[in-house]
């Protein structure tokens, strides 16, 4: 099936998803559209898996993707160890209705 293009060019889509994943890991909960949440969920789970590994290569890969060093530090110090015994499924998505204006389906994505 592939990935969702979200109506953006490759560079814009990459920047958007980096920003959303960074915000999710920083705040542990964000509200976004359903389409964006499906893409964010995959990337966030990969970042948490890197946080669980905790080695130097994983830290470098996470820093190359995340936009703030403080979020990467949080990922390796608190978020990764929190899910050490869990084998995936680190996020939860709740549907919240539609956005006023364009009726886009909105969701809340959060860390479990």
How would you describe what is shown here?
With 112 residues, the chain is of the alpha+beta class. The protein is 55% helix and 18% strand. The protein has helices at 10-27, 34-53, 56-65, 69-82, and strands at residues 29-33, 91-98, 105-111. The chain has a three-stranded antiparallel beta sheet. Helix 2 (34-53) packs antiparallel against helix 3 and helix 2 crosses helix 4. The longest helix is centred in the middle third of the chain and has 20 residues, at 34-53. It is globular.
Q: Based on helices, strands and strand pairing, what is the structural class?
A: alpha+beta
In oligomeric terms, what are we looking at? single chain
State the end-to-end CA separation. 27 Å
If strands are numbered along the chain, what order do they take across the biggest sheet? Answer: 1-3-2
The low-pLDDT segments are none
Helix content: 55-70%
Main attributes?
single chain, 112 residues, alpha+beta, three-stranded antiparallel beta sheet, 4 helices, 55% helix
A few lines on this structure:
The protein is α+β, with helices and mostly antiparallel strands and 112 residues long.
Topology (SSEs and partners):
Elements: H1 10-27, E1 29-33, H2 34-53, H3 56-65, H4 69-82, E2 91-98, E3 105-111
Antiparallel strand pairs: 1-3, 2-3
